[in-house]
Amino acid sequence: MEVVVKSVNEKNHVAEVTKTAALYTGRTAVSAANAVVNSSYFARGTLWASDVFTHAANATADLANRGVTK
């Protein structure tokens, strides 16, 4: 079985094609991720989420402070 796999690999260059495909896929994924991170929509969404978390933290702090009043 191992000899057959090695023969097919040498004949069709399967390992090289697989490595090339994996490399191309990785580069494409990195390129897509960079495009998302660098988009203005991503920046706006990040700012919006940050604002939501800030408001939630402030509301939680206000509730906690009301329970501590002497």
UniProtKB/TrEMBL annotation:
What's the protein here called? Metallothionein-2 like
Species of origin reads Actinidia chinensis var. chinensis
